[in-house]
Amino acid sequence: MAYFDVHERTYQKRWSDSEMNEINSNQYVRQKNWSNRLNYGFDYFLSDHDQINIYAFYNPFSREFDGTADSEISGKINNYWQARKEDKDINTGNFHSIYYKHSFYNGSEIAMDISNYHLDAENTTYYIDGESENGMVTRTNSSKPNQNVMSLTPELLGTYS
Question: What pTM was computed for the model?
Fold first, then answer.
């Protein structure tokens, strides 16, 4: 688990119809990272010429940014907004790999690796109004990323005649 204090600042100038607005945004947050990765696997030699390896990991993890956020617009439009920022970050990564190798008597080898990575996540950011007495959530941003990657890698090693 790791905690980092972060200050993110953005500044923009926007023009429309020859009028300018300046936008200042700040986030004063504490980055909270944690991961509980579990690695496992085994190697099995079927014979002197054949081997199979199975490896995998399971990794629930989170990367949250909690703290305060504010935004100020000045120029033709004048506006100020401030809120408490709270992230809820639930991620799970899984990786599986199966590797097979056959060694021929002449020293040549043929191998095959098939692997799969899967990410499943649910991430939500809540902006809570700092001025209301009951702490109403004023904005909510949510995403549910999902990724699945599969690879197949054949190999031929050695001399063939």
Answer: 0.73
